[in-house]
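Supplementary Methods S3. Input chains for the assembly prediction are listed below.
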Amino acid sequence: MNKNKIINDPVYGFISIKTPLIFDVIEHPYFQRLRYIKQLGMTHLVYPGALHTRFHHALGAMHLMQLAVEHLQSKGHLITNDECEAACIAILLHDIGHGPFSHALEHSIVKGISHEDIGKLIISKINDDFNNRLSLALQIFNNNYYKKFLYQLISGQLDLDRLDYLNRDSFFSGVTEGMVSSDRIIKLLNIKNGNLVVEEKGIYSIEKFLIARRLMYWQVYLHKTVIAAEQMLVKILERARELANNGTELFATPTFKHFLYNTVSITHFINEIQHINNFVKLDDSDIMASIKVWCNHTDFILSTLCNNLINRQLYKVEISTGIPDFEKTESLKQKISEKLNINYKDSSYFIFTDIINNVAYNTRQGNINVLMKNGDLQDITIASDYSNLEALAKSVTKNILCYTKV
Amino acid sequence: MNKNKIINDPVYGFISIKTPLIFDVIEHPYFQRLRYIKQLGMTHLVYPGALHTRFHHALGAMHLMQLAVEHLQSKGHLITNDECEAACIAILLHDIGHGPFSHALEHSIVKGISHEDIGKLIISKINDDFNNRLSLALQIFNNNYYKKFLYQLISGQLDLDRLDYLNRDSFFSGVTEGMVSSDRIIKLLNIKNGNLVVEEKGIYSIEKFLIARRLMYWQVYLHKTVIAAEQMLVKILERARELANNGTELFATPTFKHFLYNTVSITHFINEIQHINNFVKLDDSDIMASIKVWCNHTDFILSTLCNNLINRQLYKVEISTGIPDFEKTESLKQKISEKLNINYKDSSYFIFTDIINNVAYNTRQGNINVLMKNGDLQDITIASDYSNLEALAKSVTKNILCYTKV
Amino acid sequence: MNKNKIINDPVYGFISIKTPLIFDVIEHPYFQRLRYIKQLGMTHLVYPGALHTRFHHALGAMHLMQLAVEHLQSKGHLITNDECEAACIAILLHDIGHGPFSHALEHSIVKGISHEDIGKLIISKINDDFNNRLSLALQIFNNNYYKKFLYQLISGQLDLDRLDYLNRDSFFSGVTEGMVSSDRIIKLLNIKNGNLVVEEKGIYSIEKFLIARRLMYWQVYLHKTVIAAEQMLVKILERARELANNGTELFATPTFKHFLYNTVSITHFINEIQHINNFVKLDDSDIMASIKVWCNHTDFILSTLCNNLINRQLYKVEISTGIPDFEKTESLKQKISEKLNINYKDSSYFIFTDIINNVAYNTRQGNINVLMKNGDLQDITIASDYSNLEALAKSVTKNILCYTKV
Amino acid sequence: MNKNKIINDPVYGFISIKTPLIFDVIEHPYFQRLRYIKQLGMTHLVYPGALHTRFHHALGAMHLMQLAVEHLQSKGHLITNDECEAACIAILLHDIGHGPFSHALEHSIVKGISHEDIGKLIISKINDDFNNRLSLALQIFNNNYYKKFLYQLISGQLDLDRLDYLNRDSFFSGVTEGMVSSDRIIKLLNIKNGNLVVEEKGIYSIEKFLIARRLMYWQVYLHKTVIAAEQMLVKILERARELANNGTELFATPTFKHFLYNTVSITHFINEIQHINNFVKLDDSDIMASIKVWCNHTDFILSTLCNNLINRQLYKVEISTGIPDFEKTESLKQKISEKLNINYKDSSYFIFTDIINNVAYNTRQGNINVLMKNGDLQDITIASDYSNLEALAKSVTKNILCYTKV
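Predicted structure tokens for the full assembly:
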């Protein structure tokens, strides 16, 4: 069987699968599941093109990894074929732990365990299936490999994951302003003392990358209507779980039921094989099919929320720098309780506040180091003569108030 | 409420919703349902970007209608605002009758009734909801309006439906060779004696449009692996229905169950409201969620087919000009029966033949008339000095043989 | 004659000429001359695609003006057809005063008179040819018309001139990072109290526009090799004029000779018709053809500089924040004098310093006002929560040292 | 000095210069000259973006050569680094013999010697400058190397020259319909028995390539106004030479004068070094600068033609299948003679007929061979089930009648 495949990708043109092992990893059912998990949850309700999946993103990130490795090799750095293959596999699998609707439901389906932790469990299961042939990939993925730059290409301030998702999310949403020149940024990468650095002439491209990322946050990822839809999804899950806990009958696929009717702690998740076995079968369609059925459920709150989501009657969302006015909030709550004829406590399904934030350049995730022409390393915020780039390093926190229009 | 919306579209940049009535039609739940129906069925198994929906396509076609009307007005043809709005609504609704996975399951869910016929029923229901305010749109849609060119813009050899789907399918699949210059083709349109025509200088663009369409057929719509996946979907539905008819218990959402356990004839469908009421709730997620559950069904045939689809173990497809060799087919059938331990009759779930065909320029759907500089009209096949363009008008029929690798 | 033309433009697809008057302005020989004046001087020596002309840029800016006017009309602002036509003509003519190689030779061919001043003279001559039918355009152009926003669309911090040149220069140079979403920015424009404003939701797009502009400055307009080539052009003109002043015979086209052998002051230029009459015949080809001939001139300095330009042996350019080290410069000067066997004074043709600067957001050219949702106006640097956007308002000045490698 | 350069190219993103020898060839003055020779002559009068040069096209073709060689290597075919470098150099130099305005003036400046023949002389001179280090490139270029496919990549029915110029001409003219997917076509190439072939699955892409080429011919290369402008250029040169032969004084640069005042036969050109030495200094600017001066020449015919070109008062062009009507032509001729007050013979500068033709698939230049899945080779016209593709192999000849509007 020919395992040298070329896949059409509207973002980069063509993506090549270069080794049989990479081919087999992509064919693995756990990876194929990502075909059915949208990269941007319910964002398609605002940007109808944003239906692309974690599957496609993972392939795109792998493609950029191939380009980056080839570029670094051409700069004279030694990267073996095995390392290249392992880095490709590591980045292919970096999002394998995502559940339905990616971040939107990250803590709604399995509480207290992040997609990264689930990912590590799944990768280790895949490694078993491959008789440990992914061990080098795992080492890189867990930052246990001595060539640190390989890890930094997967996870850092300027990694290929971000390059791909910015490009891909911009492309499919049609918000072209978020596009970054991945080709150019990759050509600016270099290695210094074993770490990934950017060459000095790339300063302006990096500034632009940071600004593009910031733009995507406010224009797409934290768009009001996107927040409204994803919060509604969260509230639906919350209500369904509450009903399930009370023994109410709910239509759902068996795997989805598993997570609705059981509260799975992180310890259970790690130690009992059934949980992960159910998780790897779950995707967006389980949730959507169930929500559509719940539109006719006898529980007023559940059916109302579900109908609102399906018919796109989303929360109104107000974003503010300060905390929303308490009196206004309370009065809205009162009004909603009365209109919907529900008690005060349950009104929190229809009106609530939350916090969102965004840091364009998060120094906790490591620096972007610039290799100056004289050989020195400088942090991007210093190397740029746009002296106040550091402003991007400040976290921007905003309050949101969501409520149903009644 | 502000109903003048602008929607980001990666294909055309921005799509404007120009009137409140158009806005309300888009908001209607029957139209919103199209958000969850993929334009190209299972094509995403080959082209991972091809996840775009009937919803997005309908908006795109409406956008082209706006451009076409503006262009024809600038050429001096009278088109009123009401006619423009109605034409936009008509093209918005042209695919409203599609069910899950579009063409892939067109005759599997409701037998003997085409998506066009279902569409007419649904449009008439929407028109009721709008107190007959869509009547002009309906007249245009049914080719009952005296300005024939409006209908021809929706449905003909060179309609805006085709322009949009060629562009959109090319764009999202990444098969850029299928892109057509919709901007340019629209600028070449004119009206002569009340009919849509193309100006002489556009001959080369039309040739290119026909060739692009032909390319998309063989490279995307009739791609071997796409055929394999969609045929598997068909066979799964066929088996599920067979089991349902025998009273076997099958997991499914209630609306999907309605169509599995009832054989709905066209007469029933038209006369009994329950069928259409179920149909308008059905989308891709009902099918996918059910198929995933059926992977564990006790019926060997059903669970095997479902597992094969989900894990992408698709049929092998052979395309040939002649009829597949009978002996070879029989011997394969034998082998499959034995290997899978099933009877000869049931082996047709795992090996079968079918016919596919494609006509690039189908004269039964009307001609592409070229307006020569001297004012004459000529059919494109005559106007082109590429004398043999007529070859495109010949139907290309091929035989396919699909079988499970055992 | 049909004056409704459509012009193919790789940047925007199609540009329409909407009125016969606009058509005639474009046909005027003074405007046609812009076909032979490159937008970016010698930038093509670094970016080989950057051969686009002032002609193309002017058409592009006119196209954006049409879009902007249509958009503002759709927002309910009254703009008459005459005003729209006049605004289109005004922006068409905004660069008509440019001479060969645009900015590169701006003060080399005619000293002490800017391209804007020359432009005003030329526009007034064209207006004469049109029997004052361009008077409204002139009023807008000179900011004498009461609808200030029309002027602001032509000349301001966020005008259509900039939108077009950023896009066009990015496009043709291939530095895609400089692309801005002109479509989107135009859709964000509005009018408040007669002035052009940007709606609040556009803040991130404006930030990105400012950053893109900054990137283009350092990556293209002030690229080292571009500076080197354009400084060489300046030095060649300087030497040629020096020789001409001394009565040395120089090959040149008659119109070019006019400016080489006469020192035309601004007063002469304005009062004596011969100067402008010669100027409107001058373009890049006069200069290039002459320089190629001068490669064989007996004057060592002139022929050396010309050969260096034609054979792309450009100055080495060093950019620094501080003033270049005096001793280093003097020692280089010494070395060059000796190597080339020229006197100390003449060595300034082969080694010299200069200053370059760039302000991304120049408040002297007016503000970018943001229309907040509550109806207030705020300057972009305040409206942005990227609090330090004001850093972009600081002028970045750098020193350059140029010298011939010997 | 770092000779590993990356050049921004709007068509392909980035073009890499991979070896020092390639770098030095590009730096050679004879190659740099191509920077000043437009790829498409006067086409920019119709498509204002079409200012790209032979320099840029040569780089683009070299880039495709690199991709093609890498692809063929990945298919298992042995191509050494030296062969790759030589093939790159050979294609870089394939158009080095073009003079000002490329094809437009091909037989006007030097009569009876094609750009290919001039090219061979120039390449051989460059090879001398490089001490025969280009010998392998020359062997490939002249089809004297045993790996025939390398020559076929440079010159054949489906060579990289064509791929680049179709893409580049489409891109810069804005006629996007002419774009071909060079990436995809290259991925379809293979080698069989030492010859270049296309894999069977590429049939539709090849069809589309041939149709795109045909479209570019009629829409760009043979566009009426392009013909009009280029014929005017030819007639200007013809008149200037006639005047020169009669001893009339004409302004021109020395190198241009050389060709105006001497009639250089092919034998002279080959044997006397002065001719080639002048030729390699000639570019578009020599011609344009002179034509602008000739606008004021005392010869009525010359100055009229020159003014008409500069002010874009071009010939009216009529294209017809049959020979233009003799009586109509004669009567026009009569009218023009009278109006312009010139004699009958000289009227041929203002009215004349000519022939243009185009073959999309010219079998005299070799076949496009398709490698069928069974290993057989078939000509594309047979392999395609679009049975009449062979129609593209018929030459389309048309008559043109050009005349000045009086």
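Chain B has a mean pLDDT of 91. Chain B touches chain D at residues 176-177, 179-181, 184, 204-205, 207-208, 211-212, 214-215, 218-219, 321, 385-388, 390-392, 394, 396 (CB under 8 Å).
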